[in-house]
Design a protein that fits this description.
Blueprint: E1 2-6, H1 11-22, E2 27-31, H2 42-47, E3 55-58, E4 61-64, H3 66-77, H4 87-116, H5 125-145, H6 159-173, H7 182-192
Parallel strand pairs: 1-2
Antiparallel strand pairs: 1-3, 3-4
Helix pairs in contact: 1-3, 1-6, 4-5, 4-6
C-alpha cells in the first residue's frame, strides 16, 4: 500500500494528498515534519536525505520532491485523467507545475512566512513589499493563462491544476491586496467543488 509522510499544513504535501484523493488511492498517512517531528531520525534520513516532506513509499518505491511525486502518481495511476494522453496537453500541464515551483513559490513562500509565521513586529517591510508584488505578478500570469479555459491545460483537470490549486489556495488566503483575477476565481471555484479538496485545502493558513 502507498505510504505518505507529511503534514497537511505544507503546500507541497497538499499537492500529493490532492493527487492521491483525486485518484482514490488506498494509502496510509504518517504525520511528520513541523510540530510532528520525525525527520531527524536515521531511518527517515535513509529514505530522504533532504529530511523534508512529502515522502512516499509505493510498495517499495521511495520518492521525494512533491512535483515528482504528483507526476509519478498521475502517470502510474491516472493515465487519461491527471496524466493527459495527448503529449501536447501533458507538456502544457507539466510546464505549469514547473512554473509553480520555480516562479510562484519562490515569491509566495517568503510572503507566507512573513505574514503567517512571523510576528508583525519582526516582519521585514521591504522584503514583504517585494515578494507580495512578485506573487501578484505571478497571479496575473496565471489569470491570463486561464482566459477561456476550464482548467490550466484545457477542458480537463490535470496534474498541472493540482500544483497550481494548492498555490492559489494559499495566495488567495494571504492578507494582501491582490489584482482582480476573475478567471482565477472561476477556476478556483471549480477546483474547490471537487470532492478531493475536502480536508486538504483548508483554512485558515498555518
Amino acid at each position: 500500500m502507498l505510504k505518505i509522510w507529511g503534514r497537511l499544513s505544507s503546500l507541497n504535501v497538499q499537492k500529493v494528498m490532492l493527487a492521491v484523493r483525486e485518484l482514490a488511492l488506498p494509502h496510509t498517512f504518517v504525520e511528520a515534519g513541523g510540530q510532528f517531528g520525525g525527520l531527524d531520525t536515521p531511518e527517515y534520513g535513509r529514505l530522504n536525505p533532504n529530511r523534508r516532506v512529502p515522502l512516499i513509499d509505493d510498495n517499495g518505491f521511495v520518492l521525494w520532491e512533491s512535483n515528482a511525486i504528483v507526476r509519478y502518481l498521475a502517470s502510474r495511476y491516472g493515465s487519461g485523467s491527471l496524466w493527459p494522453t495527448d503529449p501536447c496537453v501533458r507538456a502544457d500541464a507539466d510546464r505549469w507545475m514547473d512554473w509553480q515551483a520555480t516562479e510562484w513559490q519562490p515569491a509566495m513562500g517568503p510572503a507566507f512566512l512573513q505574514l503567517i509565521r512571523t510576528p508583525e513586529d519582526k516582519r521585514n517591510p521591504e522584503l514583504l513589499a517585494k515578494v507580495v508584488a512578485q506573487s501578484n505578478a505571478c497571479g496575473q500570469i496565471l489569470e491570463n493563462a486561464l482566459q477561456g479555459r476550464e482548467f490550466i491545460a484545457g477542458a480537463q483537470f490535470t496534474m498541472g491544476d493540482i500544483a497550481l490549486a494548492c498555490a492559489a489556495h494559499r495566495w488567495l488566503a494571504l492578507p494582501i491586496e491582490r489584482p482582480e483575477t476573475p478567471a482565477i476565481a472561476a477556476w478556483y471555484r471549480r477546483v474547490m467543488m471537487r470532492p478531493a479538496t475536502a480536508g486538504v485545502l483548508t483554512l485558515p493558513l498555518a
